[in-house]
Every structure is written in structure tokens, then in C-alpha cells.
Automatic annotation (TrEMBL):
This is ABC transporter substrate-binding protein. Residues 61-274 form the SsuA/THI5-like domain. GO terms for biological process: thiamine biosynthetic process. The keyword Signal applies. SUPFAM superfamilies: Periplasmic binding protein-like II.
Length: 348
């Protein structure tokens, strides 16, 4: 899954220069219409759907299954929406959402927090997963059993100041020195190639890379960051939109989130069937990995929350306070504006 870029300069510039907002103009591609289906003009008029674009944070994976399930099972269509699920291309999902290129997208609490403190009006509408499933992972032969063991090892990352801040934070709990870690920027390099060739450990999502390691027969020592501080148990990823889209068409936002919630509930209750839906949308994915990942992740979507997507103010405050204390934010976050549960369906 994609590593986050923490350079928000381009995103801020896009916001300042954007001349138009996130409307509901018809895209050139009529994605979401069933191939071969023909209707009369009168039928088209009565069944006219609102065109919506949803941009992923990276290539399709099991974080996104609920979106594909909602589309495949007709939940979006039933909500009056023609949803086109796209990949971000050269720009980030946050940039596309903020500039109006997509009405919704997959983002992270980390980037929304940093973006909002730089006047980028993104809003998180749902937590895809209730608890942070990311952490530092190393092949067992590197003998990294605790943050103390990071000392003298090579870390492969993507050059974000947040990486070192998190590493320093959990190492200090054990009296360890982050300056004794060698940082190597591996960009988008494959984890398994990197640990064989260049590094000892990296930051991964266990639900994808960790499961792949299991299937490869390559056991990992996994140090989940949430296990070392409740402030690091943040929402990653999330479904996001912009303030402009929400203000201009709140009923559409509610319809989209209701259908999306149904998609994730389906994936919770039917992991194997949901995995097949994801594979249909992204046939190049490894089938065994998708099925195994989905089985691992499905119960974690909602976990201990009263409904899928529910977000807590305390989670947003804990993490933004942590970032501000470590000078990763220019100013404190206005937490209440960063997220909303108002567009989720009521808990059953």
C-alpha cells in the first residue's frame, strides 16, 4: 500500500489556484454503466444518475474492497449515483479531492491533519479501519523484537519527518537513540526486495504486506505503533471529501456514504465473496493474497465501533496533539472541523 507523501506544497498551491469547485459535471468516461445495457431516452431520463468520482490512495487493495462492493452490488446505483473509482496517477488523492478532480477519495488522518493546518479544507467522513494496523516490520533473522533493537539497523522509508518522529517517540520509551538508526529512502521499492538487498526493517500495513509475508513463508517481527502509544492509534486510511462538496450537496454526500457503508458491511459479513469482487475489479492482483488479506482485515473494519466508519474526537485530538508537540504541525488542529460522523447511516 502506498507510502504517504508529506510534501503538501503542491496541494496547497492547487487549493489557492483552483478556479472551480467539486461540482457534479459529467465526466468523459461513463464508468459504472453496465456494458451492453441499452435503455430508451425516456428510461434514461427516469433513471438518470449523478456522476461521482472516487480516487484511491494507491492501487486497488483490501482497504478499498467496500468501495468496489458498493459499486458491483448496485448500492451506489440504488442511491442515485454513477460512481467511477479511479487511481490518483501523478497527483495525490488529497490533491485531487481538494482541487475538485474527484468528489471523494481515500486519504489518511495523518495527511488530513497536516493539510488542514495549512488551509487545505479536507474532511474525513469515515474511518475505513478502526485501529491502526501499521507498524515496523523486520524479517525474524534481524532480531528486532522491540524499538530498542532499531539501534544499529537500517530503516527503509520514504523520507518523511513523521517516520523519524514516530520512531524516536517509541524508541525513547526504552531509552534508545534514534540517531543510531541508518535511514535509507527506498521510495516505492518492494518491501521484500528491499529487506533482502538494502535494509533491515520498514513501516508496513500488516493487512497487506504482513499477510504476503505469511504466504511467502517469510515470518516477520511486527511492532505495531499503536501498541506503544494510544496517540499513535489513529485512523488510516479514511474516506475523505472537501468542505465545498459537503456544503454544496450534503444529500449526495449522505447517499454516497450510506452506500459505501453498505459495501463495507458486506465485506465484513462476506470476506471471501468481497475478495472476489475486488479481484474482478483488479484481476492482476494475486488471488491468494487478496483472499487471505480480506479474511484478516474484514473483522477489523468495524472492530469495536458501534458502526463501520465511526470516528472519535479523542483519536483526532490525540494524534494532532502528538504531531504539534513534535513540531510536525505549524499550529494546533481544529479537530471538530477535520472529521464528521454526520453522513454515516445510523448504527443498527
Amino acid at each position: 500500500m502506498k507510502k504517504r507523501s508529506w510534501s503538501l506544497l503542491l496541494l496547497v498551491c492547487v487549493i489557492l489556484l483552483a478556479a472551480s469547485g467539486c461540482g457534479t459535471s459529467k465526466p468523459a468516461d461513463n464508468g459504472g454503466t453496465a456494458a451492453g445495457t441499452k435503455t430508451t431516452p425516456a428510461a434514461e431520463k427516469t433513471k438518470e444518475l449523478k456522476d461521482i468520482k472516487v480516487v484511491l490512495d494507491w492501487t486497488p487493495n483490501t482497504n478499498h474492497t467496500g468501495l468496489f462492493a458498493a459499486k458491483e452490488l448496485g448500492y451506489y446505483k440504488d442511491a442515485g449515483l454513477n460512481v467511477d473509482i479511479i487511481q490518483p496517477g501523478s497527483g495525490s488523492a488529497d490533491t485531487m479531492i481538494a482541487s475538485g478532480a474527484a468528489q471523494f477519495g481515500v486519504s489518511y488522518q495523518e495527511s488530513i491533519t497536516q493539510g488542514r493546518t495549512q488551509n487545505v479544507p479536507l474532511v474525513s467522513l469515515a474511518a475505513v479501519i478502526q485501529h491502526n494496523t501499521s507498524g515496523f516490520a523486520a524479517p525474524v533473522d534481524r532480531k528486532i523484537k522491540s524499538p530498542k533493537d532499531f539501534e544499529g539497523k537500517k530503516y527503509g522509508g520514504w523520507g518523511s519527518p513523521v517516520e523519524e518522529a514516530v520512531m524516536k517517540s517509541i524508541m525513547e520509551l526504552q531509552g534508545a537513540d534514534v540517531s543510531k538508526v541508518t535511514n535509507i529512502n527506498i521510495g516505492e521499492a518492494d518491501y521484500f526486495t528491499a529487506v533482502k538487498r538494502d535494509i533491515d526493517f520498514a513501516w508496513i500495513y500488516y493487512g497487506w504486506t504482513g499477510i504476503e509475508a505469511e504466504l511467502r513463508g517469510q515470518p516477520l517481527d511486527m511492532l505495531y505503533v499503536k501498541d506503544y502509544s494510544e496517540k499513535l492509534d489513529y485512523y488510516t486510511p479514511v474516506i475523505a471529501s472537501s468542505e465545498k462538496v459537503i456544503a454544496s450537496d450534503p444529500e449526495m454526500v449522505k447517499a454516497f456514504m450510506s452506500a459505501t457503508s453498505k459495501g463495507y458491511e458486506y465485506a465484513i459479513d462476506h470476506p471471501e465473496e468481497a475478495a472476489k469482487i475486488l479481484l474482478k475489479a483488479a484481476p492482476d492482483l494475486d488471488e491468494k493474497l487478496v483472499v487471505a488479506s480480506q479474511k484478516w482485515l474484514s473483522p477489523r473494519y468495524k472492530d469495536d465501533a458501534p458502526r463501520w466508519g465511526e470516528q472519535k474526537e479523542s483519536v483526532w485530538k490525540n494524534y494532532s496533539d502528538w504531531m504539534y508537540e513534535r513540531k510536525l504541525l505549524d499550529k494546533p488542529l481544529d479537530v471538530k472541523k477535520a472529521f464528521s460522523n454526520d453522513y454515516l447511516p445510523e448504527a443498527k
